[in-house]
Amino acid sequence: MTEIAEKIKALAEKYSSYTAENLSKLVKIKSLSMEEKEVQYELKRQMEEAGFDEVFIDGIGNVIGRIGNGKKILAIDGHMDTVDVGNLDNWSFDPFSGEIKDGFVHGRGTVDQEGGPAAFVTTGRILKELGFDKDLTIYFVGSVMEEDCDGLCWKYIIEEDKIKPDFAISTEPTNLNIYRGHRGRMEIHVHFKGLSSHGSAPERGKNAIYMAARAALEIEKLNERLATDEFLGKGSVTISEIISGSPSLCAVADYARIHLDRRLTWGETKLSAVKEIEDIVKDMDAKVEVLYYDGIAFTGNHYGMEKYYPTWKIPADHTAVTTGEEAFVKLFDKNPLVDKWTFSTNGIALNGMYGIPTIGFGPGNEVMAHAPDEKVKISDLVAASAFYAMYAYLI
């Protein structure tokens, strides 16, 4: 395997400009969730140019490239949708320039998360050039709608495309570390029902805003006592929105709603998180609701799922992790850091919902995700393209 590792490294370096230029082409195409069509067709073109055995776009727009036809299946995933750019004044360059300069590719999506797919296109080219013939099928997936609903794309791939991998790699940014999990999350609404009265006589009514405010203070206290996991850290809950309604601004509010961003550590579940909120509002006229996502893909198809994204982690000694460590050492002659993401990824479906052993390894630092002046090191792209190829030989 030492000889293979050296060949992989040499080809990854040889194709460094190719990888950077492919990423630049992707970044120049704005690709918000449900609006990925153009970038998906560009990724498909790149896969075909790299010599993949098969490339297709599924019913909700995921681009799926295949190399090999073995019994064991490895999936390498990267989502192609990005968030918007925010305040342009915070950027020192055009977010969609895709400029290649000073050893970086610049622009929205370079880190979160088109750098991973650009790297795995090169991986495919490397594997084809080396005549990869292991008893393995590799699916390279440029997935959609992740920013709106983590894991929805993989729910579709597994349940509708009928592709269920034995192992998976997420190419979300890890700063070239190996990640083996992250906290889950939920989106929750709490609705409060009040009774309106004229604002000149508030005692005749029942103010829903006051109910929401009392609940909010208790939720702040709840955050302090949530469970902690040694690896994943502490669960959290915060209120990210409050709205209210009343017949007029001269009336007592008869409705209020708060939106909760709930992050779930190991052992916390949808049921336990909902019960915690229900206990807080049990003496109020209130309803706790876990939200549901129903998106319309650029293909025109509707697809949805509940906005409960399960916590996941795999053991440090699992084959998926140790294979990643072995690949890293063979390529880079040092030990990797094994860690976790702060944010959420498609791993919530791959492992959290379907139990597929999953690791993360991706170019770029996650602190750049959703941030202005987003950029990724070309050397990270090179390392990632080599890592995915080496992993395929070892798994």
How would you characterize the overall build of this protein?
The chain has 395 residues and is an alpha+beta fold. The protein has two domains: 2-182 and 311-394, 3-Layer(aba) Sandwich (Aminopeptidase), CATH 3.40.630; 184-296, Alpha-Beta Plaits (2-Layer Sandwich). It is 32% helix and 25% strand. The protein has ten helices and 22 strands. The chain has helices at 2-14, 16-27, 37-50, 115-129, 152-159, 208-224, 270-280, 319-332, 347-350, 378-394, and strands at residues 54-57, 63-67, 72-79, 100-101, 104-106, 136-143, 167-170, 178-179, 181-182, 184-193, 228-229, 233-234, 236-245, 255-264, 286-290, 292-296, 302-306, 308-309, 312-313, 338-339, 358-360, 375-377. The protein has a six-stranded mixed beta sheet, covered by helices on one side. Strand 1 and strand 2 (63-67) form a beta hairpin. The longest helix has 17 residues, at 208-224. The protein is elongated, with a radius of gyration of 23 Å. It starts with a helix and ends with a helix. The model has no long low-confidence stretch (mean pLDDT 98).
